[in-house]
Amino acid sequence: MNVYHCPICGKAGEASPRYPKYICVECGHRAVDENGRQLKFTNVAVSGGFEAIYMDTGEMRDGHICWVDGVRCFADEAHMGGIVVSVYEDEAN
């Protein structure tokens, strides 16, 4: 296993060539919008898709950008299903 460390918390995990800047699941659960409202990311259906939902109201959020501990991130549908949250490209450079 190629060791990888979450860019937010440093937790060790398995490296992913497809998602080189992904954050761990625990950090992904702390995702918020630009106003600090907590977000939840899910697939639309078993076949995939992506949706962002506000945890406090259940309303949909239009967009993929989020923040985790002040770091700008991007949430999206993973290649084979599920959700992946990664440090936003501009932030990782």
Could you walk me through the main structural features you see in this protein, from its secondary elements to its overall organization?
- It is built from 2 helices and 8 strands; from the N terminus they run ββαββββββα.
- A 3-stranded antiparallel beta sheet has the order 3-4-5, with no helix packed on it.
- The longest helix is centred in the first third of the chain and has 4 residues.
- The chain has one domain.
- With 93 residues, it is mostly beta strands.
Instruction: Write down the overall mean pLDDT.
Output: 93
- Main pleated-sheet profile: 3 strands, antiparallel
Beta-strand portion reads 25-35%
Give the N-terminus to C-terminus distance in angstroms.
25 Å
- Measured as a percent range, the helix fraction is under 10%
What count of helical segments does DSSP give? 2
Please give the radius of gyration in angstroms.
Answer: 13 Å
* Domain tally: 1
Number of strands: 8
By secondary-structure content and strand pairing, the structural class works out as: mainly beta
Stretches where pLDDT is under 50 for at least 5 consecutive residues are none
From the spread of the alpha carbons, the general shape counts as globular
SSE series: EEHEEEEEEH
Strand order of the largest sheet: 3-4-5
Write the layout of secondary structure elements.
Elements: E1 3-5, E2 12-14, H1 25-28, E3 39-42, E4 51-54, E5 60-61, E6 65-68, E7 71-77, E8 83-87, H2 89-92
